[in-house]
Design brief:
single chain, mainly alpha, 0% strand, globular
């Protein structure tokens, strides 16, 4: 597959604008960005995969900052 600069520009622009352009709930936006990040992180075949994974991580950090004290799920039984 041949990648041209416009392909990378479109992917990067889509990632950056996704939060404002999507009408989904914030929780769903987070899940989608996490899936995109995981896709590019796992693929990690080319340098642009690393770039897009890091860009997605930055968008997640911007819109869903983590303190390090979060607990994924607390079950009260």
């Amino acid at each position: 597959m041949i990648i041209v600069p416009q392909d990378l520009e479109k992917a990067a622009t889509d990632i950056v604008r996704f939060w404002q352009s999507s009408e989904l709930r914030d929780e769903d936006k987070i899940k989608i960005l996490e899936m995109v990040n995981r896709f590019y992180s796992d693929k990690n075949e080319y340098i642009h995969d690393q770039y897009l994974a890091e860009l997605t991580k930055r968008m997640l950090d911007k819109h869903n900052p983590q303190t390090g004290f979060e607990v994924d799920e607390i079950s009260e039984e």
